[in-house]
């Protein structure tokens, strides 16, 4: 309770002090045209430097000193650590415009009155404000109440903004800029001079005073200005009228800035006044029922002040502060919708109302939103709200000068303006000192060094264990490559469109079962391998690519390995009947191509694609004789030949090593599938290549063996028994009629002994095993009695 009472007391005294017009003129009004280059800044730009961003080049480290509505604990902590500064981040000052009309209906003109301690009353409605300037207040009073705190804030490193809001004709432009004549005469204390020229007059005087009073500090200042208007939802450069419809950019380094907006460097108040006059003369004006020369665009004048303090460190750098002074003169809505303005003005009026409405909504959102709920989206509703992001709810001390009229006919507009001010006061602006100190620079340098070290470690692979499993990134690539090499045959892995692929769900039970069966087969295959090697003794089992250089006249065509045929087999072929010949040709042209699903994320890798990109339609290109035209082929891509060749050439593993490696890889794949449920949906695009190692053969002499029935006919997987040429279902049965989308032709009887560097059976096994990474269920079925039977038949026939 005690704390609450103290807070309330503090707030009340703060409001009271702000409410009273008590600020003395900070400096004399003489203009000294100071030369600001006491110490050389890091950059010495020319005076006029157009086409630069409107915001500071570097985003300074921001030190929090004052914020609105912080949590109680945070507030206590902040007060303990920060210098005492009770300046609220958002202030609302009301100024009443002198009456210009005589009462026509006898009603009281002066219905707006000040009520203690710090409120403005309109009828029975009361609004809490931070300052009140009645209709007798002068421009100097307005400057004292609003302008002087802005200067103090800016020189302390805060961003400071003044936003004039109110109905058309209530004196916004007059209060902010004053009469043009007063601006031209910058040396005199003209009564009509507005807040902005007074601020700069005072600012430059203060800067000079600081430099002269403490030359040992060697602080250098540099100021640059920009001036823009938001007209019909477009941003135009008031300092360069040819620059229209400029774009707002936002990035971490520069924050919000307007691209290509002219920045002009200034060092005297005359410089600023010239810019102000130039910009204001380019502003769009029109006529409203309240104002003959009414502003029809919102204008934003920004002055960036950069200050460098030299220190005695090695780099001569001590601290740098960058602050912004922003003047926002909003166009006011007309009191009368039917003001007799031209059609063009009506359109302008619509835009003015729309943009002000969005600004009002933004203020509502910001005033109601909790600190944690703030996001960028409300600012992006319009150009105006976006470009004023720092002013509304951001890093800025902002004063809302609500211009009102005491005329009765403006009552609605006056109430609306005061309501706006009341809500704006609740905005959670967080004003920070924008400073970079030497410590900050050192800290950032350390951070950069650490990040560089981390990057270097990451690049060199010294990242400890792989976080995402064995089959991720490079590991996955290497593993798949090893597996492919170990199978001693080329694998073409086409990208196959997902939409037409068959989804395979793999459940854990299947995987466990499969794993057991593979283990069993692992041992049995070793036996089979031994047997096979015995049977193959006497045959040339060299796997050198150079061993069988059956080059063809198609040498310049894409070359892939194929089944080379020995004389025995050739004889065997010749003795077969025509149908068998056709089968042989068909199988001879066969090869294996496995299309890994693009969705197997950790295994999927673009670099695997030494393969053609196969689309659904492209898969039906090459057909084997005797097969329906819809049979699938995926290998007629010339670009693959080199990749295939290199794949084959890199095959240096012995058959047993290959077997062991393949099984090991396969187990990893299975483990991976068990661990990660994501890839359980596999898509199979199967096209069989030859399994055994074979010398190259041009594509012209090989073709596909993956067969697909015409689209739309069933999707059940099956295999064609190459001996009987009947489709078998997955369990090895021969159904009456199987319409398959994908069929696997198992080539038999065509393998040459010379070329079979790896036993055919093992190759078959490995091939299917490899497929297991894609299609567990199929493997599982093949490992079932029926499937095994079929596989064994093939092997027997071969042997
Ligand atoms: N406090 C004041 N003392 C003397 N004249 C004033 C005062 N306020 C406004 N005026 C005069 O009223 C007229 C309209 O003022 P001003 O153009 O500043 O209004 P505004 O709010 O900017 O209107 P709009 O939104 O249409 O641009 C001007 O001629 C201006 O000189």
UniProtKB/TrEMBL annotation:
Residues 64-73 have a biased composition (Low complexity). GO terms for cellular component: microtubule; phragmoplast. It holds the Pfam family Kinesin. One of its GO terms (biological process) is microtubule-based movement. The keyword Nucleotide-binding applies. It comes from the Eukaryota. Residues 553-568 have a biased composition (Acidic residues). Residues 89-427 form the Kinesin motor domain. ATP binds at residues 166-173. SMART domains: KISc. Residues 632-657 have a biased composition (Polar residues). InterPro entries: KIF15/KIN-12 (IPR044986), Kinesin_motor_dom (IPR001752). Residues 1-12 have a biased composition (Basic residues). Residues 1-86, 525-582, 618-657 are annotated as: Disordered. GO terms for molecular function: ATP binding; microtubule binding; microtubule motor activity. Keywords: ATP-binding, Coiled coil, Microtubule, Motor protein, Nucleotide-binding. Belongs to the TRAFAC class myosin-kinesin ATPase superfamily. Kinesin family. KIN-12 subfamily. This is Kinesin motor domain-containing protein. The lineage of its organism: Eukaryota, Viridiplantae, Streptophyta, Embryophyta, Tracheophyta.
């Amino acid at each position: 309770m005690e704390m609450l009472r103290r807070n309330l007391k503090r707030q009340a005294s703060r409001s009271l002090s702000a409410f009273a017009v008590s600020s003395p003129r900070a400096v004399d009004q003489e203009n000294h045209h100071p030369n600001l280059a006491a110490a050389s800044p890091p950059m010495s730009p020319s005076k006029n430097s157009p086409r630069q961003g409107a915001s500071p080049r570097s985003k300074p480290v921001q030190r929090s000193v004052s914020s609105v509505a912080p949590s109680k604990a945070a507030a206590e902590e902040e007060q303990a650590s920060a210098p005492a500064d009770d300046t609220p981040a958002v202030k609302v000052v009301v100024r009443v415009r002198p009456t210009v009309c005589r009462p026509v209906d006898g009603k009281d003109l002066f219905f707006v009155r000040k009520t203690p301690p710090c409120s403005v009353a309109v009828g029975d409605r009361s609004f809490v404000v931070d300052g009140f300037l009645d209709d007798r207040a002068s421009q100097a009073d307005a400057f004292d109440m609003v302008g002087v705190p802005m200067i103090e804030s800016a020189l302390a490193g805060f961003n400071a903004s003044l936003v004039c809001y109110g109905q058309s004709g209530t004196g916004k432009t007059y209060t902010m800029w004053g009469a043009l004549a007063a601006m031209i005469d910058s040396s005199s204390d003209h009564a009509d001079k507005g807040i902005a020229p007074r601020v700069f007059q005072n600012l430059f005087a203060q800067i000079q005073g600081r430099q002269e009073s403490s030359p040992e500090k060697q602080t250098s200042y540099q100021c640059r200005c920009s001036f823009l208007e938001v007209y019909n939802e477009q941003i135009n450069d008031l300092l360069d009228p040819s620059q229209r419809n400029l774009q707002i950019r936002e990035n971490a380094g520069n924050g919000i800035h307007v691209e290509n907006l002219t920045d002009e460097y200034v060092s005297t108040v005359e410089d600023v006044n010239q810019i102000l006059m130039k910009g204001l003369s380019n502003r769009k004006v029109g006529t409203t029922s309240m104002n003959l020369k009414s502003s029809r665009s919102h204008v934003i004048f920004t002055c960036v002040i950069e200050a460098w303090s030299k220190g005695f460190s090695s780099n001569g750098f001590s601290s740098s502060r960058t602050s912004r002074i922003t003047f926002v003169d909003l166009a006011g809505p007309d009191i009368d919708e039917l003001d007799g303005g031209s059609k063009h003005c009506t359109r302008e009026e619509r835009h003015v109302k729309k943009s002000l409405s969005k600004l009002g909504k933004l203020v509502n959102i910001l005033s109601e939103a909790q600190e944690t709920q703030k996001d960028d989206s409300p600012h992006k509703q319009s150009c105006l709200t976006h470009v004023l992001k720092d002013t509304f709810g951001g890093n800025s001390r902002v004063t809302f000068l609500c211009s009102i009229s005491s005329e009765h006919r403006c009552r609605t507009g006056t109430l609306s303006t005061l309501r706006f001010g009341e809500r704006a006061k609740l905005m959670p602006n967080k004003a920070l000192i924008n400073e970079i100190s030497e410590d900050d620079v050192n800290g950032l340098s350390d951070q950069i060094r650490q990040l560089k070290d981390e990057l270097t470690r990451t690049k060199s692979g010294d990242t400890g264990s792989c976080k995402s499993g064995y089959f991720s990134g490079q590991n996955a690539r290497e593993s798949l490559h090893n597996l492919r090499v170990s199978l001693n045959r080329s694998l073409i892995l086409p990208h196959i469109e997902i939409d037409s692929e068959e989804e395979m769900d793999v459940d854990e039970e299947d995987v466990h079962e499969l794993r057991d069966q593979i283990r069993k087969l692992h041992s049995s295959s070793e036996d089979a391998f031994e047997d096979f090697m015995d049977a193959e003794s006497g045959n040339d089992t060299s796997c050198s690519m150079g061993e069988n250089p059956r080059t063809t006249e198609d040498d310049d065509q894409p070359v892939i390995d194929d089944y080379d045929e020995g004389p025995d087999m050739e004889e065997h072929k010749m003795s077969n009947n025509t149908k068998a010949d056709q089968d042989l040709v068909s199988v001879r042209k066969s090869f294996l191509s496995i299309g890994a699903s693009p969705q197997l994320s950790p295994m999927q890798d673009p670099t695997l694609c030494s393969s053609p990109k196969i689309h659904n339609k492209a898969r039906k290109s090459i057909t084997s004789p005797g097969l329906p035209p819809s049979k699938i082929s995926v290998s007629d891509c010339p670009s693959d030949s080199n990749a295939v060749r290199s794949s084959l050439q890199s095959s240096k593993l012995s058959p047993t090593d290959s077997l062991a490696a393949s099984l090991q890889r396969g187990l990893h794949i299975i483990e991976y599938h068990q661990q990660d449920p994501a890839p359980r949906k596999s898509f199979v695009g199967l096209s069989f290549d030859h399994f055994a190692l074979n010398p190259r053969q041009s594509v012209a002499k090989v073709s596909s063996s993956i067969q697909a029935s015409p689209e739309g006919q069933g999707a059940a997987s099956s295999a064609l028994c190459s001996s009987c040429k009947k489709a078998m279902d997955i369990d090895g049965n021969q159904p009456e009629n199987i319409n398959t989308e994908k069929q696997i032709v198992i080539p038999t009887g065509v393998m040459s002994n010379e070329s079979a560097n790896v036993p055919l059976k093992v190759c078959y096994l490995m091939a299917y095993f490899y497929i297991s990474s894609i299609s567990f269920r199929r493997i599982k079925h093949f490992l079932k009695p029926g499937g095994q039977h079929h596989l064994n038949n093939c092997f027997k026939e071969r042997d």
